[in-house]
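Researcher: Let's try something more involved. This one mixes different molecule types, so please make sure each is placed in the same coordinate frame as the others.
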Amino acid sequence: MADKAQIQEAIKAQGEVVRRLKAEKASKDQIDEEVAKLLQLKAQLGGEDGKHVFVLKTAKGTRDYNPKQMAIREKVFNTIIGCFKRHGAETIDTPVFELKETLTGKYGEDSKLIYDLKDQGGELLSLRYDLTVPFARYLAMNKITNIKRYHIAKVYRRDNPAMTRGRYREFYQCDFDIAGQYDPMIPDAECLKIVYEILSELDLGDFRIKVNDRRILDGMFAMCGVPDEKFRTICSTVDKLDKASWEDVKNEMVKEKGLSEGVADQIGEYVSMQGGMDLAERLLQDPKLSQSKQACAGLADMKQLFSYLQLFQVTDKVLFDLSLARGLDYYTGVIYEAVLSQMIQAPVVAKQNGALPGDEASVSVGSVAGGGRYDGLVGMFDPKGKKVPCVGVSIGIERIFSIMEQKAELLAEKVRTTETQVLVASAQKNLLEERLKLTTELWNAGIKAEVLYKKNPKLLTQLQHCEETGIPLVAILGEQELKDGVVKLRKVASREEVDVPREELVEELKRRTSKLP
Amino acid sequence: MADKAQIQEAIKAQGEVVRRLKAEKASKDQIDEEVAKLLQLKAQLGGEDGKHVFVLKTAKGTRDYNPKQMAIREKVFNTIIGCFKRHGAETIDTPVFELKETLTGKYGEDSKLIYDLKDQGGELLSLRYDLTVPFARYLAMNKITNIKRYHIAKVYRRDNPAMTRGRYREFYQCDFDIAGQYDPMIPDAECLKIVYEILSELDLGDFRIKVNDRRILDGMFAMCGVPDEKFRTICSTVDKLDKASWEDVKNEMVKEKGLSEGVADQIGEYVSMQGGMDLAERLLQDPKLSQSKQACAGLADMKQLFSYLQLFQVTDKVLFDLSLARGLDYYTGVIYEAVLSQMIQAPVVAKQNGALPGDEASVSVGSVAGGGRYDGLVGMFDPKGKKVPCVGVSIGIERIFSIMEQKAELLAEKVRTTETQVLVASAQKNLLEERLKLTTELWNAGIKAEVLYKKNPKLLTQLQHCEETGIPLVAILGEQELKDGVVKLRKVASREEVDVPREELVEELKRRTSKLP
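Model: All components are placed in one shared frame. Result:
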């Protein structure tokens, strides 16, 4: 550790940085970050008693999960993994960091949000930004040409966190992808079926899945007169339509990205269109769009997609929406995004994070799933450029967690964080050994059992532990029970008690707990 | 991206670095790292056709898990989590990175192995090195004074990887810890019970759990004449006894750490001792040790521990071993480590990684679990130094994976990577729509079903897919079946076929698949 004089020097310098930013009226966010650094430095000097004082927090934009949050998370994961497995998916895992150059050039304007590791000698590494690029690297590296896989893992983005809305710098992605050369639109339709099944099963209220196609967007841009090299950046601008008004989006197109007003207005007409298979059919006759080969290919596939979606019984929630653009560079065909219809009240989360309830806290959670086709990404990695067509979907699990947590809080649901079936207890002193012996018998028989780590706990303390943690049964030992070769089995909820012969206890517990929810 | 001239400049400089290291006869490892950097730079220049050529690899010391490895991993995790839940544990999660200073000063000589994140503005962050320090930070931050929790997550160490032996730079830890003020040695004994249960259930062959106590070691060091300030560093040296001979260890004590030969020899006598409760009793009478208060407290607790281990029925595998020291700084009481008895042959893994089979590949995997009591760590984080006593164990899951993978390979076990119960197939053309319709019925009823993404697949292709991936049943549709309102259900293994009425298919599948393993 640096010596005191060095630290004091650093504190002085950092104090300057903060003062300068405040004078320059820099963003609150920027100032906060530099203040945090200053506090860390001050903490190194230690408290008055010379003890080192730690800044007790998690890194900005990240959070711990407590046991209750983990119980909810486990439930959500089980539903999602259950769906992926029902559709015959395998799973893989990749490292949390990749060679930096593996990620370079894949995320368009968002590449600046990638976390890099410090160069401590050796390779230059970055934390993964999503699971899709590592998946493509995995396929190219192992020369895999077809696979249906899911991958659930954390990804990292140096974004501006909005934690009340479930936006973090470290967050889970739940990805399902199908790689391989298949007949058109069948895997694409299955991805949408999966989104439909998961959102229905999680019971998050009504939702819509918007679909579009990059080829339709590109054809539309071309026919409206957008220069080729501006397709991707205009795409990013269109993508803001879910949060911004058309006026703002048009403004960005004209003032920042240099389109003429006439071109922007033509785009404006198209991106207001929504419909189903009928819209695809109508646009195939559109005088402008029908002149673009790309657009026609996209529209024909859109029709095909809707016909499969009918067979999959999901068209009631799917909407062909020309304003859907998606931010990422690598999409080449169908794209989609699921949004919840309800507005979410977020007082609970806001309170937890010490924020004031207000505008920010009660907004729509927005997109909860998104994806699309990316036929070129694997080829970027392959030395010979060999392509592997891919389509996939990513479930926005953090937003779903936020909603589930709020629901549990609003309904004052009691969430159990352990699965313990029985507490081994005693009403008298000096029975620790007997309690441990019985607990051992239960563990060895596969029963989920607990025992308090005290020599002589009071019975009341033991019963309270059951009520607090939701343990349904207590096995009580006393001198008399030991003499009679029985155990007093008590139901915590009803206080019913019955003596069970010791040698039948395991069977009786198995019988009773198999009926528990 | 940098321009061509800049890259060529960098390549020249890096080439110099490599040449210099080779001339200096630097370690192979160091040279390899710099060569890797050089190759990355060269790759940026692109191939002959101007296409950017990627280095297709994972970061040094890390690996992808393919579906087969994931299937094995899932099985191992289920066993371990099952055990943790049987003992009433909750689970938490913490971010993959912490404020750098949270980790500083916790790991003794190993702190140099911590991965830092690049300073991109904002906080200084490091990847977690273990799950114990983040756990202590979590307890102090949330003022939690008792909890029994498990945490399964990846940790990061810039160590020299030995991947054939299951040693990686990114690897899983499976931690179980009990925090709280309880009667002595009960939670400690439960940790050992858990190690015993997990290693037995995973069926990894015979094993031993060595136990010792930091207080016994410190008392022993004091009585042998080691100066106080050398306790921790001598502890690190003693810890090498599982891999190095006494001569080497003594050499390090005398030549590197400055002990006199007489002191080292006295230590040598003690660290050769092994036994059970009897050894603890004998050492309580030892003329030297019995003069150390610390040692006596440790020995009395060791006796108590063994008495609980008897009740837990695990003493057959537990060994009180005075040479056990454990590397980490934060232990304050009981420490333990589990080792497998068998030597592991690792030809398969060695082959996979392109290494030659040889000495390195066929060595013992060594320790597969370890832990101990750390009563001071939470207090380091608490502003007022308030202590929360903790004891815990970490399962060395990567080594266990390596063994399970080798076992599966040696036994030529067929590992299924999906759970699909039935493939929906057809023997005739133009039945894609009918196949999709039936698959939808099955998915909606919760049956795990697949369908090939082809308009007109051959029946043989469909049956081969079942055999390759282990799908046990095929539901075959044809013109005749559709007319008769039936589905032909075929068992892949026996080729038995039977017509099932369409409306009874779901029930029939549920009946059949509930009997599957």
